[in-house]
Every structure is written in structure tokens, then in C-alpha cells.
Amino acid sequence: MLTVNHDGISVESDLAGGRPACPACEGVLRLWGWARERLIRHGAWADRSLVRHRPRRGRCSGCAATHVLLGIGLAARRADSAVVLAAAIEAKAVGGAGHRVIAAWLGRPVSTVRGWLRAFAASAGAIAEEFTALAHRDGADAAGLWPAPAPAPSGRALAAVTAYAGVLAARFSVATMAWQSAGLAVAGPFFFSAGRLQGRGQHGLALMPGSRDGKGGKSAG
Description:
Layout: E1 2-4, H1 8-16, E2 29-34, E3 38-42, E4 49-53, E5 56-60, E6 66-71, H2 82-93, H3 99-106, H4 110-138, H5 153-171, H6 179-187
Parallel strand pairs: 1-6
Antiparallel strand pairs: 2-5, 3-4, 5-6
């Protein structure tokens, strides 16, 4: 799987132009039909809705592998949008809320929310290390982008990704960028999955606002 721009027209154009790189061999991805349709939950309680998503699929001209291309608002193997996942993680890491309270707030099963929080906590050390290095490498004034110090691993991970989101916002000339978008852009669709960030990000950033050529530069990995 590969994280791409949420704009379907841009994705089509980039696939037709051979711009996306294969995450396995760095070959060129071309159009290769569609993946299975997914129903994704957005919002909470009264604002909750089910939205149908049918991701594009690309095939590598080098290794012939096929890859599902998920928009930057979606995460692999999750039936909820990245915004919902991020809200749960923030409530735990910043507010100290427990998984039962968060589940009641979001209107999601307790076991589902507990799984999200455990997965993020399991990868927190690797996430903090990776994104701290990226923020210092790419940010002209990384210190000015850093949130307040966080004692817990999940809080440190959230702070590091938030700092790098600020770096990307400045790079692409947008006012703000959500931290989950930065995480998915760098690490790919498995950013919210336990143990899937071990210094291996996407070969290039997912397309961001303000990027015209689709070549977001090298990410970690």
C-alpha cells in the first residue's frame, strides 16, 4: 500500500505520468484498476457518517507488484478515518483520557479504541525517533515548532510528528497541516499500525497542497 494525495484527479494524472514510485523497488507505478470498495466511518455521534471509498491500484513497471493507493485521510486496515484515529490518540496522549472514555466520546467500540491506542503506543519510540530526526534535518527553525515537552512515549511521538507537520506546512506554503497527515505522508498507510515504522517510510512524500510535480522529496527510509 502507498499513501497518495486525497485529490483523485491528481492521483490519476500522476499515475498516467509515471510519477509515483513503487515502495518495494522504486520502479514506476502505472494505472492498474481499482481496489475493493471500503466503507469508512467519519466523525462522531451525530456527525458520524459512512463514506464509500474505492482506492486506485497501481502496478510497478519494474517488479510487477501491485499496490493499493490510499488517500492521505485513510489508514491501512482501519475502518475509521485518520482524523478519528488522531482524535483518539490526542485525547489519550494530551488529555490523559482512558480508552473507555474515548470510546464513549467517539461512539466507537471500546475494544476498537483500545486497539488504536495500543498500536500507537507500541510504535511510539520509533515514531518519536524518526520524526525528531526529520524535523531537525528539514526544519530551518525546528525548535520553534516543537510543542510542550511530553513525558510519556505516545506524547513524545505526537510532539515529534506535530513538529514535522509544521516543517511540511512551511515547505508547501500552507497555513497548517494536521499531524496525522504528516505521519501518513512520510510513513505510509501503516503509520497507525503497531511496529510498522522501523526507519522505513515511503520512497517519496505523498502529494501535499502546493506540490505541483508530485515529487515531495525523499522521506525517511
